[in-house]
């Protein structure tokens, strides 16, 4: 089907275009949904600390309660089972299981994840875990300097090995990091995310330490588990706003700092030369042997995709034409770029099997009251169907993708946007914490059922 004519998608035919063993899921992260921020021995994270700094979060909120998933996880697993999901991607909160990021483990924290994993398995849902979704123990930031310190690399590898030792036999996969670009760039260069620094040199050093910690964690986990291991990268493909050479160069540099900066050391054993030249004196300090440690064999690659970037000659992004509209985050909806990028990755990197570990949209949802309240999020249904059509097209062109995780199961804390942006298939009333599946949840449920019928 022509990607420019996505409005005519037949959901039943689309579902049948995926191979029988393709897996459907949803994703969340600990900091965004768990709450219980200081219960049962959990230590503070850098996001607990960041939320308490005036002006950091647009709506002035925090993650003390969030969606209260810590206490309501069984209700949330029941929602997943009702959708017919094959799998669920969640993250461990490092400070919940090791409050200081080093030293003693918190058995109450591990017990929570033990209960969650058991509940998922009992529901027939495969648990896919992420070790780091941005909630570094605050103690490591205060005592060691956070990801600016090479010492944190070893602490992360210890944490990874302990989680893998305890849970590896029951996990369908373990990813080391979620979106290291966000940790480094938004956390250490633009100050949008915790810990809120504004230094490009720091950001690039942090990016290297994240990559190094990924490699060391994979090696440490290989020694204690046979669970499939990988990493989750966010890719925002870069394009020139015009055919001018200056615009093309700006897009190429951004591609080097966004996509290739993380793909190249993992799969090619080097950082991209053009990006290194561009950053000049801000380039990270790389010790002998670092790149060999980063380049560990992986069992899968997770890709998070939301939108693209357009660049002008001044190196600034410009707003795209938005022929399919924009999400509530202001992100241009470009499913055709999703397909193109997956094919590019397959051809240029020959990666291990890929999973779409995040894809979704923030939408200005509202509940329609009545005897049967509902959320008519037709925009999200259109987004989902368009991106699944794009994914099917990419797979037909050679992209080896084994599963898709919609972001997100629940409306939740959207980082520095607070609770204003709703990505969920399930609406959350933040006053009562009541869950209400949206129309998109029913669409996804029916789509999965159509696919499952051919298994």
Automatic annotation (TrEMBL):
It catalyses: Hydrolysis of terminal, non-reducing beta-D-glucosyl residues with release of beta-D-glucose. GO terms for molecular function: beta-glucosidase activity. Pfam families: Glyco_hydro_1. Keywords: Carbohydrate metabolism, Cellulose degradation, Glycosidase, Hydrolase, Polysaccharide degradation. Its EC number is 3.2.1.21. Signal peptide: none annotated. The active site is at residue 358. InterPro entries: GH, Glyco_hydro_1, Glyco_hydro_1_AS, Glyco_hydro_1_beta-glucosidase. The keyword Glycoprotein does not apply. Belongs to the glycosyl hydrolase 1 family. This is Beta-glucosidase.
